[in-house]
Amino acid sequence: MRALRPSVVTAVAAVAALTAVTGCAEKSDGKGDGAVRVVATDDSCEVSSTSVPAGHVELAVENKGSKVTEVYVLFPDDRIVAERENIGPGTRARITAEIKAGTYVIACKPGMKGKGIRQKVEVTGGRTAARSPEMDAAVAGYRDYVQAQADETLPRVKVFTDAVAAGDVEAAKKAYAVSRIGWERTEPVAESFGDIDPKVDVREDGLEDGQKWTGWHRLEKALWKDGKLGAEEKALAPVLHTDLLDWQKRVGRAEITPTSMANGAKELLDEVATGKVTGEEERYSHTDLVDFKANVEGAERSYTLLKPIAAKNDAALTASLDKRFAALDALLDTYRADTDSYDFTSYDKVGTADRKKLSDAVNALAEPLSELAAAVTK
């Protein structure tokens, strides 16, 4: 994960109202093409309209600051509705959200940290997006997938945390990367529970003031950098298992829609681009390629479920996505001897030129993948 990054897929509530999508807006308010304009600077977040009709609302974001920024649409309790990360200085981005009536917040985060600069927005009216039987089938399939990933993760985590609790460094190292695969495959859903992600998957540089460092990466550092497991690490092992057990029990309550699936797939590619390709994610264990592969698998699962819908609306897009997924999968396979295993090359052995090839393949896929939600909702 990137530092405390929440997800486009929100935790469900009885009155769940928004889901992230991309593509053309059905109803919006703003200048020019009708989008709500959001101008972000290093110290401001200007929104062209603070009253928006329900339906598909498009945000046209421009970063006029000197820092890379993020823009979020939030519920009042800070659950994420829609987001766009890594908006560089002088660049523009589009965010389209499917919105029901209520009060929400648009937040700009210069430097991609902190609570952000916020503007309250009122959404009026009762319009909702239509859902076809094919869309319902895709959602049901994906819901089964994320629950299965969570269910399969817990036994793997138990092997890892038992080894940590026993002080067995080598056994813990062996179990570490495998214990993360299900989480990485479903990271947008996993991160939607904002109180779990900071406990289990935050890196040291992502800690907020006063936050205790717990979770996988705290133990990763002890195993690979310190080379030992002390009393503190042993005590943190059952905490990680308990936190992930909470996640497993709550996955079934996540709000999942066709558009959030599509955007979640794009978010998984962004995770690869901003953490795995750079080597930031697994900076001590260098097991980045395991996470990388899991992220791609999760994105591909979402795409596969949505493909029958998207192909009817944009066959050229799905043909491109098929080609790009295949190319990235083939490239990743060159870093493992057995395609049925997750025994990948240690990332510190992957040179600069090869990392660029991986980055280029991710970017080549990410561009058409950003159009998937629009194709699904045509």
Keyword list:
378 residues; five-stranded mixed β-sheet; globular; disordered N terminus; 10 strands
Chain-wise SSE layout:
Elements: E1 18-21, E2 36-40, E3 45-47, E4 51-53, E5 55-63, E6 69-74, E7 80-87, E8 92-99, E9 102-108, E10 117-124, H1 133-165, H2 169-179, H3 181-185, H4 187-190, H5 197-200, H6 216-226, H7 231-250, H8 258-276, H9 288-313, H10 315-333, H11 352-369, H12 372-376
Parallel strand pairs: 2-5, 4-10
Antiparallel strand pairs: 1-8, 2-3, 5-8, 6-7, 6-9, 9-10
Strand content: 15-25%
- Mean pLDDT equals 88
* Coarse morphology: globular
H and E string = EEEEEEEEEEHHHHHHHHHHHH
Which structural class do the helices and strands define?
Answer: alpha+beta
Task: Count up the helices.
Answer: 12
Q: Biggest β-sheet: count, sense, barrel?
A: 5 strands, mixed
Q: What share of residues is helical?
A: 40-55%
Give me the Rg, rounded: 20 Å
Give the termini distance in whole angstroms. 31 Å
Q: Give the tally of β-strands.
A: 10
In the sheet with the most strands, the strands line up as: 1-8-5-2-3
Which parts are unreliable, with pLDDT below 50 for 5 consecutive residues or more?
2-32
